[in-house]
Amino acid sequence: MPDIAPIVEMKRINKVFPGVRALSDVNFRLFKGEVHAIMGQNGAGKSTLVKVLTGVYKQDSGEMLLEGRPIRPDSPLAAQKLGINTVYQEVNLCLNLSVAENIFIGREPMKLGSIDWKTMNRKAAEVLLRLNIKIDVTRTLSSYSIAIQQMVAIARVLDSSAKVLILDEPTSSLDEGEVEQLFKVIRKLRDEGLAILFITHFLDQTYQISDRITVLKNGTFVGEYMTEKLPKLELIAKMLGKELSEFNYSATGEAKRDAKRDAERAAAAHGSSAETMLRAEGLGRHGSIAPFDLDLHKGDVLGLAGLLGSGRTEMARLLFGIDSADRGDILVKGKKTTLGSPHSAMMKGLGFCSEDRKNEGIFAELSIRENIILALQAKRGAFRYLTKGKQLEIADKLIKDLAIKTPNSDNEIRQLSGGNQQKVMLARWLATDPSILILDEPTRGIDVGAKLEIMEQILNLSREGLGVIFISSEFEEVIRCSTRVAVLKDKAKVAELQGEDMTERGIMQTIAGGK
Amino acid sequence: MKTKSIFSSRNLPMYVTICLFFLMFGLGAVSFKGFFSLQNFLNLFIDNAYLIIIGVGMTFVIISGGIDLSVGSVLALSTMLASSLLEKSHMDPILVIPIVLLVGISLGLFMGFLIQKFDLPPFIITLAGLYLARGLCYVISLDTIGITNAFWQKAAQSQINIGDSFISPSVVIALVVFFGGIFISRNTKFGRTVFAIGGNEQSALLMGLPVARTKIWLYGFSGFCSSLAGIVFTFYTQSGYALNGKGMEMDAIAAVVIGGTLLTGGVGSMVGTLFGVFIFGTIQLLIAFQGTLNSWWTRIAIGFLVFVFCFLQRVFETRKVAKEAPEPSAKAGAKAAEA
């Protein structure tokens, strides 16, 4: 079909945010009667690209064509008027209004200056029937499931002027049956000639529904492929920004790269009889992560590997009590417990470094010392105040141990580099003397040297007997640090790899589903 | 299926209100001789015409998720303006009424503009409006201004007979506003946009609805209702006085809440508000017939009722949420087991 002109064409789009080059020279084409998926890791630029298309952001340079004519929508409304409609994950409708109203509000059929409810309800039922849905359109939207609400949102944008339909993570809160229902609708609309842009983190769904895939990596355009001609394994490699042949080589070479680490791994494998620090049995939370089993032994580094949105962070949040599980059990040191809150998790010897360092980690206005002491003070309670002398002693020791580069522990933390801030986060939890440490993307956004240092610290800690759960989107890092790797995909734990199987290719194959 | 949608839990507070009203009126009929008469029922309209009018405007504002605290003061300002224009400037009623209404609408539009344009909280802006309008009353006059205008006298004294009983012209005005309110809320784009804003303002914006314009006119409409209520109030009292309608904003809010309109916005009805006003009036009647209780007991009863109704609303809401929470799906588990 490539000989047909695309309905949407974005050419050499550039977008720079302060400090980040979000898109550089990205191309994108969308065809009539096709479902197109954009794939990429964290920071690949998917959402920025979509936001440029829908008028939320304005590109710095580059051209956007709709049916061959240049467009520059400056708001989502302007984009809608051009026929580019978006249905978001959080359905943007009014739950208090009836289904029919949600479809027609703003363009209600009128009769003698009054809303013609009869016609409106009839037309609404007709539009929904086109999507194979038969429901009572006079009931309030809140009385229907999210799946139906999404269909209503789609029905709303389906008038004659709709040319492009963008579905932003529509399936993340649907169950399998509902996803199938949605896909039926998407296929029907595609066959009727609509151009559909489908955004999802679910790899399998991408293959079920899309005809064409555009891959982005770090804000650059990797390529555009027909889905049927792109094996899953290759897609994953492209998302990681590598060629498959590279992995063939490194898969053999890598295992022997770090002999010392190998020995440790072997020891850990033997020592799996070692004390179990943390154990999850059938732990899960609806809509967040499917039930999983997990064991973390003393001195273990358990890596969590998976693509963006695979459920890594969700798993970590359950284990630290930030989100509460709705099924399964957590055992800390063999004892069944409930982690009702991060505080109770902390009191039981757990520590957690969030992936969102800026918002959920550091307190930018506080000093390094205060940032380090925070968790410890919280653990002791407000009435057992740490004297300044004691605080200094703890902070200085950790600054030295972790080699945090600062002249003085009283400096504000925001003056530190990202890598050193991350070390302060590590120090904060080490101050509480934890036995289990969960690190969510501790190496993100810091330079290579700092990455190596952080990884070295993680290994040191595990040697001292800590159990560490290490999350990173760089499979290479996960493998280098971990004694075992749990692989996640589509919000579920799918496998655990160790020893020989624990290679980048092994992880990718597990994710692709080919054994 | 039809009955199910009528008796959905959303409307339940309103039905509770209607039942409560009949219960209270029945209680009065059983307890006091002469309580149960058509005239006594019509007196609810006659005595509370101004509150019904203000209540209609307030219901719209609260459905949108806002609040209007200025209504009592705007009512007072309208009584002052009307009486002063009539008595001191000897203006014709044909001119006085539009002027008073225009002042009320303008004040409302001004507050709506500030609330919308600068994203300021309605509570604070209308509180400022409350002080401003009340202060302006004293600028016009410190004392009561009696009205001797013939038209006004006639409006006060005319009676429209219904059988042996009667209603006043004020009741006709209140009913027109009431039914107008029902029509606007159910059958106009403006009315439905108000509901949409109350349901989810962000969504309303993304759906391309004229949120800004609607919000500004909303307060303009409430200002119109308040000033019209002020005119009706002067029919009743034949005077303008700066202390008129002190605390009336609270009576109006209470009536709206008792009528089943959610303070969080998105849900409410004019019929509910009418019965909210009726309950208000019935409590006053009951206390008057009882004879020994201080009239302040009205406040205690109303206070108690508002507590009960807010509580009821919360109970209905939580029950709804619990019912709609997604059931944990067994499928996700099965998927993990397969893998």
Give structural notes.
The complex is a heterodimer of chains A (515) and B (339). With 515 residues, chain A is of the alpha/beta class. Among the domains of chain A are: 8-246, Rossmann fold (3-Layer(aba) Sandwich), CATH 3.40.50.300; 367-433, no CATH class. In chain A, strands 6-9-10-3-11-12 form a six-stranded mixed sheet, sandwiched between helices. Chain A is globular and about 80 Å long. The two termini of chain A are 33 Å apart. Chain B is mostly helical and 339 residues long. Chain B has a two-stranded antiparallel ribbon with strand order 1-4. A two-stranded antiparallel ribbon of chain B has the order 2-3. Chain B has a single domain, classed as ABC transporter involved in vitamin B12 uptake, BtuC, CATH 1.10.3470. Chain A binds chain B through residues 76-77, 80, 92-97, 101, 105-106, 108, 113-115, 117, 136, 138-140, 142-143, 145-146, 156, 173, 175-177, 284, 286-287, 290-292, 326-327, 489, 491-495, and chain B through 1, 5, 8, 10, 183, 186-189, 192-193, 195-196, 198-200, 202-204, 206-209, 266-267, 320, 324, 326, 328-329, 331-333, 335-336, 339.
Short description:
The complex is a heterodimer of chains A (515) and B (339). With 515 residues, chain A is α/β, with parallel strands linked by helices. In chain A, 37% of the residues lie in helices and 24% in strands.
Structural class of chain A: alpha/beta
Helical stretch count of chain A? 19
- Order of strands across the widest beta sheet of chain A? 6-9-10-3-11-12
The overall strand count of chain B is 4
For the report, how would you describe the main beta sheet of chain B?
Answer: 2 strands, antiparallel
* CATH architecture annotation name of the domain at 8-246 in chain A: 3-Layer(aba) Sandwich
Number of E-state strands of chain A: 22
- Globular, elongated, flat, extended or rod-shaped: what is the shape of chain B? globular
Can you tell me the number of structural domains of chain B? 1
**Largest interchain contact:** A-B, 44 and 36 residues
Distance between the termini of chain A: 33 Å
Strand share of the residues of chain A? 15-25%
**CATH architectural arrangement of chain B:** Orthogonal Bundle
